[in-house]
Structure prediction request, 321 residues.
Amino acid sequence: MRQAGRSLPEYRRLREEHPAFSDVIHRPELAAEVTMQPVRRHGVDAAILFSDIMTPVQAIVPGIDIHPGKGPVVETPFRTKADLDRLRPLDVDRDIPYVVDTVGRVRNELSDDVALIGFGGAPFTIASYLVEGGKSREYRHTKTLMYAQPEVWAELADRLADITLASLRAQVDAGAQAVQVFDSWVGALSVSDYRTHVLPATARIFAGLADLDVPRIHFGVGTAHLLPSMAEAGADVVGVDWRTPLAEARRIVGDRAVQGNLDPTALFAPPEVVDAKVRDVLADAGGEPGHIFNLGWGVLPETDPEVLTRVVKVVHALGAA
Ligand code: CP3
Prediction:
């Protein structure tokens, strides 16, 4: 899950030497190193590429920055039909060669039994940054665009879907063995708005990946109400946060796998409580295949890395039992 690295002293040391977050993403030797850090330390079964959901659009649109502690900031927000002209298709070789290079390096360095997960942003979450200009609580401008200019919104969502799709296909070509599409903020929508304004563009990404034969993971936060619709978007695995019991998620998503869902703040509990909560997650998943153990959302930077290592050990011990 995002930001496992942020809790690590080795990541912080590297960031002291390279304070600009985007520099690390743009330099394959650094991005590959940071991708490997949590794998070396925790012995997890999969690595997630070090990059950001905004990386492809950042390569296309000038004036997008990612501020640690604040997230993506877009200098001139997207609010009108004319803004669509600022969003041409992604040219992988020209726009994100460093992402492709990083994937290749990481794949070479990882052992065969550790998977590399590539990722991208879903149209709603990326659009929310572009339209609001940064992080939002209410998504007022985003929803206004959706309601007042539905054709402009639909075109924006489709273009963003195509950008993410191109980036994900390139990551798989370069060696990623699974892909995850993050729709972190989509829980803010009603079921009806999701179905009308977001599901079609999101489904386009998963359909466009179908021929690659890699597991496709779809992740959101606070999405209990959206799960039946998200299952229709076409991923193989649906990720849920700690608010939704995995057993319930399984019932809803049918024959798809589920991912999750330990609360990242549970890692601050006493060790025996952490262990019990990990056991609860596994028990809730039902001991059946088709569950990827994960946190329900990103690792908090203040997390003790040793607790994470322990969680991995407990999961491996119980998962093998
Ligand atoms: O863990 C990893 O390093 C994997 C790579 C990864 C990052 N961002 C690196 C990153 C992944 C998978 C993401 C996805 C991402 N980026 C999402 C979706 C997942 C989620 O957690 O919801 C979102 C919404 C973003 C946009 C974004 N980028 C946010 C909200 C932030 C956090 C700002 C903050 O510091 O609170 C970022 C910056 C970011 N992306 C960091 C990392 C490691 C932190 C920068 C730093 O301090 O090093």
Observations:
- The chain has a mean pLDDT of 96.
